[in-house]
Amino acid sequence: MTAVRMATSDINELTPNKDEAETLMINKMAPILYSMDASSPANAVRMFADIIGLDLELKHIDLTVAEQKLPEFLKINPIGSIPALKDGDFIVSDSHVIMKYLLLKYAAHQVESLYPSNLQTRALVDQAMYFNTGVYFIKLKGVTIPSLFGDCTETPEKSKKDINDCYKQTVLITQPACYINKMAPILYSMDASPPANAVRMFADIIGLDLELKQLDITVAEHKSPEYLKINPIGSIPALKDGDFVVSDSHVIMKYLLSKYAANQVESLYPSDLQTRALVDQAMYFNTGVYFIRLKEVTIPSLFGECTETPEKSKKDINDCYKDLAVKKKEVQPPDLPRNKGRVPPVTSAEVQTALRRSRNRKVIGAD
């Protein structure tokens, strides 16, 4: 779950004071959502913010004492409705509008999967949202508002029927659920593969789910006819995104960044010519120098051809680490989010376990 910072319900604190403002600056000015726990529309925004990985600052408005009609709140939202969103100097209300705004501003890389550009598909999404506004929520309010204010203690049978009918209609209008793209890119991988693990960690940094397909190179699954149809080179990792297939971890990471995290390109792969050249230099150093020396140790170990690392190989790898330290100083990496929970981090212990498991496998698919 993303962190949601709760604020007091005191109406005097609707406008952040100096200390709160400084805190918001530290937190990079999280958008403020004026909300109430019992508000379905406000909770929809909160859930949506969690889906796209966005922190919100919550300001609680108590409808039971008409805080939404106080002058302080009406300055923020003249309509006097919740939820309302304040993002810097910009204010907007209505949960559907708020969600679209947050998607376009803070999760541009997820627009195509959540609010597709295809005209007919987007129309179906809009249809569902307007059905919620114009039909379902009106009938729901007929029950929730009286219950909230203590005007009724039992739901009338007609209201129950109206709401149940709405649920049935909701099922019907959301049948074309194919417009929500749930097809995560497929990564053909192996637990003990540093290049594959690099892609997994990178996907975690940009907040992208990957479907993992494990290949066991100790029994040559990467050379099977089925896999060679996907990647004729027979290497791992390889990525299948719809009908598109690409291999090499560095290429895969740049592709995923450009397609699924366009809003992070400037921080991770800057457009400045010299800075980007230094990033490329580090990646090609990994491909052409470091990984070659690492493979001289890992491949024989993986196949049980050696039980001890030669001293020369140790020296070669240590020299690479020294070179990497120098190159790290040339490119100052940005502060990156770690372990968002989408893809678990790979530990050295897990790699060792994978190595031992691979050595013990005799046939494809054996445990």
TrEMBL record:
Stretch list, region Disordered: 331-350
* PROSITE patterns assigned to the protein according to its UniProt record, in alphabetical order: GST_NTER
Question: GO: which molecular function terms?
Answer: glutathione transferase activity
> Which GO BP annotation is one of this protein's?
glutathione metabolic process
Q: Which residues form the GST N-terminal domain?
A: 29-110, 183-264
Task: Supply the InterPro entries for this chain.
Answer: Glutathione_S-Trfase, Glutathione_S-Trfase_N, Thioredoxin-like_sf
- Which Pfam family would be a valid example here? GST_N
Protein known as? GST N-terminal domain-containing protein
Organism of origin is Arctia plantaginis
